[in-house]
Fold these 3 entries.
Entry 1:
Amino acid sequence: MTVWRPAPGWGSRHDSGVHPLLRAAQARQCHIQRGTDMLFEMIPAYLRFFDLPVATPEQLRALAEIRY
């Protein structure tokens, strides 16, 4: 895939921040989500599955020590 030619509306997730492919997608008004953001959204479901106390994605982000 040519990095500078993603189709409008294309989406991607990546763990280490915004890399060239995601920047190209943003330039074409495509929705992107960092991998860490996706994990914050998924963690509450895992906590519920294992019958552990559930935290919201916002609470998890507030506690996280992530530097991009």
Entry 2:
Amino acid sequence: MERVTSTTTKIKTAQRIWQRCSILCTSLG
């Protein structure tokens, strides 16, 4: 269970970072 939880947390964090990067890239053009 611990491994699954940590993996899920990493995925969620990566998604947040990816969203921020995509938003920045879109705003920059």
Entry 3:
Amino acid sequence: MSTLGNTSGYKPSVSEVSSNTTSKDSLTSEKTASSIEISTNPTFQLLKSNDALTKFRELWWNQGNIHPSARWEEASDVSWEKYAERTDMFSVHGNWEWVDRKVYVYDLPLGPHCTCSCAIIREIILKDPEKTMVMYGSVSTRADGMGKEADGSVIPRGKPYVNSNGVRHKPWPNLIIEVASLETEEHLLNVVKNYWLYPNRAHDVIAIKLIRSDTIISRMKAWHYCIDNRELTGELIPVTEFEFETINDENQIIIQPQQFTINIKTECIFHGMPTDFHIPTSISNPLTIDLYYVLLNMEEELIL
């Protein structure tokens, strides 16, 4: 298990980290938030100033009901094992993260969130007739005192166990899919650049931001990042970035097929495979994900 300390530069930007350690690597954030302490029994030592807030915070930790009135505050002194247990128990994968023994809730599992990541995975599956890629849903990863779950991920079948600890001591996925609904764009891209694409982890990331207007998902922003696409300074820059409207007043999809596509080189998808491995010729290079068909699969979820 990697124990390098928090050297990746990743910071949770949804709330302040009031670390209990005196390590110089302790994380900080610009925003202020109250904390919830979890005792060893393990009941909360909760803030007493607001009974309603206490109730809502108990809901998300004890029952998995992530109520927005809880304001998604942090819980401290949480072991990795407890975090993983709660994640599995309440099926809130991809919505929490674990940093220096603190749990952060940064998004709510709304329908479009899950449907979007599943639709992207589906498009990849259709391009892999020989089933050479393994498609995961949410997977737990842990590195440098942090734990994070992707909304979706792809790994070549038979990838060697090099730079493991990505998925329950297995190799890191080559492609990560992250979808944000209530999660901020700042937090989304922070995770992409400073956690998933930190050296020796994932190779490519597709990031989607769903933008809500009244009762519909009215716009979508998309990014494709690859570790090979950097400025001379080393700063990651997107291979592809675009924003578009989703549906019109008649609830018809506005964009057209092939208008907005993400193209991923097959050598990126199969990065890390043995030298004698040959990328199947049945997979087009680049592998194209057409966001028109992603929206088509999300059509019934765009109206909230």
